[in-house]
Amino acid sequence: MKFTLSWLKEYLETEEGLDTIAAALTMIGLEVERVDDPAPRLSLFKSVLVEEVEPHPNADRLRVCLVDTGDTKISVVCGAHNVRSGMKAVFAPAGATVPGTGMVLSKTVIRGVESNGMLVSEREMGLSHEHDGIIDLSQDVPVGVPFARIFGLDDPVVDIAVTPNRADCLSVLGIARDLAAAGLGRLKTRPLVPVDSDVPPSVQVMIDLGDQARLCPAFAWCHVRGVQNGPSPDWLRQRLHAIGLNSINALVDMTNFMTFDCGRPLHVFDAAKINGNLQVRLARRGEKMLALDGRVHELEAGMLVIADDYGIVSIAGIMGGERTGCDEMTTDVLIESALWDPLCIARTGRRLGIDSDARYRFERGVDPAFVIPGLERATRLTLDLCGGVASSLSVAGHVPDAERVVHFDPRQVRRLSGLSTDDDEIGAVLNALGFLTSWHEGETFDVSVPSWRADVTTQADLVEEVVRIVGVDKVPSVPLPRPDAVIGSIQTIGQRRRGLARRNLAARGLAEAMTWSFISEAHATCFGGGQRELELVNPISPDMSHMRPGLLPGLINAVRRNVDRGFADVALFEVGQVYRGLRPDDQLMMAAGVRHGISHVNGAGRHWQDETKPVGVFDAKADALAVLESLGLSVGNLRVLSDVAPSWFHPGRSAAVRLDPQTDLAWFGELHPDVLDLFDVSGPLVGFEIFLDAAPVSRSGSVRTKPHLQLYDLQPVRRDFAFVVENDVKADELIRAARGADKALIVDVRLFDVFEGGALEGRKSLAIEVTLQPKDKTLTDADLESVSEKIVARVGAATGGVLRK
Amino acid sequence: MAEWDQLERELIAAIEGAADDAALEVVRVAALGKKGSVSALLKCLGGMSPDERRSKGPLINSLRDRIVDAIAVRRVALRTAALRVRLAHERVDVTLPVRRGSVHDGRIHPVSQVIDEIMIIFADMGFSLAEGSDIETDYYNFTALNFPEGHPAREMHDTFFFKQDHAGERLLLRTHTSPVQIHSMETRKPPLRIIAPGRTYRCDSDQTHTPMFHQLEGLVIDRDSHLGHLKWVLQEFCKAFFEVDRVKMRFRPSFFPFTEPSLEVDINYTRTDAGIRFGEGEDWLEILGCGMIHPTVLVNCGLDPSVYQGFAWGMGIDRIAMLKYGMPDLRSFFEADIRWLKHYGFRPLDFPGLIGGGA
Fold it and tell me: Phi, psi at residue A676, to the nearest 5°?
């Protein structure tokens, strides 16, 4: 909402300066977004007298002018056809910035003649598109008057953000009322002399809404004959121009002025163009109207319209039609001042995509009690601007009674805000805002809410009024009492798991990324998502249309961007939500990561100490297991299963990790070449995905005691075995078999060598180191022999493996 | 006697001339071995008369002792020399670069770090964490929060929608974390002190707006907490979070359908080449909206507004992260540019909180 300082002062008698007013506006809830005072940047532009005009000695189309600036007489070269001696013009000296072009003027020599500045056109001053000659001022203007004053631009423009509840402050009147209540001055009332006429309007208006009459409670109108429509006077043009509106003609400008001045949107019809009478009704599907915005709007059934015998003449409360619009030829005008249902206006405006100042106000709620006074003021203004003879006012429907009383206990102010404002001051603040207060049995106020404050319905609303006018800065800062107990863990188990996963992965050298929750349909589908129900109706771009089924798509895209920038050896992870459906339970928390190029846990990029090899499935496996272990799972209990990881992984280089046979805790592997193609990234690329909520909650629950630690004095004994097995035997089976050979004695089995090829052709050798922990007596050779036999037998039975010779 | 002297001279010369342990051992065996020259002299002692033995014994024994000592001295000298040679041989270039370790390489995203920082500060004030899902119903995102159907305030939220389901319900991506207020009040009994960080969504994109961002919801419900407490909580939070003794904040009246009175809070700062300073300069950054819970919201959650009251706030986590750590552009938060993550991210062992902080 924009307004100018002088406009405000029509309603507010104040001694305060612009800065104080602007600061006060923000502090009472009318946040100042911008204050624009054009006068300072136009201060160099002043009126001058062009004393002499001589032809330019070296150019046919240029003239050399002697200009009297009041202080001095200087030479200016000018090319305008209308420059003549004795004229009053606007002069910009060297150093001035021309607003219309942004050009900074300097003293120059034009074809051998010195020029000390510029005589400017309306377009150069940003006044209009007029560039046919320089500004030709009236002879009455003295020399040396600032341009801004001559054109009424010495009036600062204030732009405030009005919150949706404060429809009353979408008018200069409403803003002035708030400022006056805040002690910034006195609210001026402007007397209105109603037009007295016995002649009824010749056009009749019928509200024909059946049981939907609430959509248009009241429609008031007046008919003014014999008007002379034309350009508005300067004061009106300047005000509208200052707030960014184009001046159209006096009648249209009058309605725009009323909209901003007192928050009363109006419409003017050229009465001569109306066929028959007007009817307020609901549109029929497919009806069309060419509106004043130059667009043809096709209406939907149920939209509110005003129609004559030929069809729709106005989309009620939003925009009028071109056919009955007022132009310079209009002599009979019908002025409409009506009440429309805010929801209906909002819905229609949104469906049709029309943003008008009228819609903006009607959908927020206009003052119902101002329908008739607003029409009276508009009629008076019309007569003042355009002459003519007014009819009496007519009203269809009834102006609703907006009277509302809120029982208000002034102690609520202290209860809700902590302010210790006394009752008298509370009453005074409310009165200044237009609320009427009377004591109800000496305990509470009966507060009568003014018709323009539909937003105030409860005691809390009244507390807000008091707080914002007394001042939020007056609210004391009061310590929130400390809790009377230590609160213990403040996180849920899920949050703790996310934190553990995050710190562990970062400690393994991966960098945490945060990627969009929505991805493209193709990427979502590739990773098991892309369902129609998870598609956004209004995505911000086609690449962000579907809720992500996993974290890998976003991470792989991030890898591609980094690779494209020249950073190929990246390791990224994300901990966040994925979506399997729309219900809250369908939102899962995952941790996932990717490693690309040479980016192992011990470091990224080539290094003289390392064998330089690209990442592989085991890098991803190590990450996945590290996270699962951080969640309290014992890696020894986990099963790593091949051939069950999802399709986006390499089928032979991927696995699922399970604790029980049904539940996948994690997947890891090299990404499938098809995925690399789809994401346009080259490998090697490995990834892992962990379902953070799938791991069982530790059975010990809140018991934090660790199990008893058993230490033995006897040294452990280590024995190595190398088994030759078929190629498809899983190392894990062999290790488990060895371990199971003597559960009491064998405490660890470690696989330290894998050898394939050579003479083994089709088979491989797996070498393990078995650790035996004697408990109460030293192991004899016979004991060792017996355990070794059990291991060989067990492994042989489980895997078909035989000791390598 | 003279031949003994001769023998000793020869042996000493041989010992000193031994080039390594093996050569020295040969000399030792030749002198002191079973058939050694010194051993032979010692053996003669048995065949001597007591007088002769008394006179020659000490001489022969001392000869033996001198040879033994000489061998020992030579052995040490040889070992020292050999060690010197070995150590010289083992010399490496210690300026060769080393891997700095994964703890050096990894990073925590600034938003995660900031959420941890926030959590610790509010934990100290007795708050615990809650959370909700990103996909919400219209009821929890709007209706329960007193956004009337069709009200312009709904439009300000630029909501992402899903298609209507068979029952005619249209789900959406939550536009703020405030639905967590409703879930919390529905499921827990007052008094409540809750914070809820999370992702929120609006279909809007420019330098300061991304379609996805992070918000922190705060909620206090009891019988007497008022705006003054709200002010204190937020002031104390900002001081602790920005790690300053004083912070200049501006509380402005505003409007949210779910609070009454409603306030917006700006923080005063200035950006210089040396970084961001608080409580100085002319710049204000809006960091949060807040207010007293609207009575209608309390009623919607089954609480009697004449008994219970409280306040709530919604704070932009990304914004306060930018303000504290100086990231210029919000969009980079979600780009996963490894250069940005390395620069603005935190090391995994940079634990926030009372025992954390810079060295």
Answer: -60, -40
DSSP assignment, residue A473?
G
Cβ separation of B135 and A468 shorter than 8 Å? no
Mean pLDDT is lowest, of A225-234, A427-436, A490-499, for: A490-499
Residue A502: name the closest of B156, B348, B89 by CA. B348
Q: Do A491 and B119 touch (CB under 8 A)?
A: yes
ipTM: 0.89
In this structure, what token pair is assigned to residue B299? 């009623």
Q: Report chain B residues whose CB lies below 8 A from the CB of A29.
A: 252-255
CB contacts of B307 in chain A (<8 Å) are none
Q: What is the DSSP letter of B157?
A: T
Please tell me the distance from the alpha carbon of residue A456 to that of residue A436, in angstroms, as a whole number.
13
**What is the crossing angle of helices B50-89 and B37-44, to 10°?**
160
Amino acid in the structure at residue A602: N
How far is Cα A290 from Cα A321, in angstroms, rounded to an integer? 6
Q: Among A43, A13, A247, A294, which residue's Cα sits nearest to residue A150? A: A43
> If you average pLDDT over residues A514-522, what whole number do you get?
96
Task: Give the residue on A whose Cα is nearest the Cα of B100.
Answer: A603
The DSSP secondary-structure symbol of A764 reads: E
The residues, ordered by sequence, that sit 6+ positions from A797 with a Cβ below 8 Å of its Cβ are: A737
> SS3 for A457?
coil
A345, A364, A517, A552: which to substitute to probe chain B, counting the most B Cβ within 10 Å? Answer: A517
Per-residue pLDDT, A683: 82
* Residues A289, A269 contacting (CB under 8 angstroms): no
For residue B297, the model assigns a pLDDT of 96
Q: Does B337 sit within 8 Å of A561, measured CB to CB? A: yes
pTM of this prediction?
A: 0.86
Which tokens sit at A217? Answer: 């409670």
Q: Residue B272: CA atoms inside 13 Å, Cβ hemisphere, count?
A: 6
Which residue among B116, B135, B231 sits closest to A587, beta carbon to beta carbon? B135
Contact B96 A608 (CB under 8 A): yes
What is the percent of chain B with per-residue pLDDT over 70, rounded to a whole number?
96
Q: Does A105 touch chain B (CB under 8 A)?
A: no
Give the distance from residue B99's alpha carbon to the nearest chain A alpha carbon, in angstroms.
6
Confidence label for A171 from pLDDT (cuts 50, 70 and 90): very high
Cβ separation of A516 and B334 shorter than 8 Å?
A: yes
Single out the residue of A589, A543, A670, A498 nearest to residue B109, CA to CA. A498
A88-135 pLDDT per residue, tens: 999 999 888 888 888 888 888 888 888 888 889 888 887 777 777 888
Could you report the per-residue pLDDT of A553-573, keeping only the tens digit for each?
999 999 999 999 999 999 999
CA distance A433 to A454: 13
Q: Compute the average pLDDT of residues A332-341.
A: 96
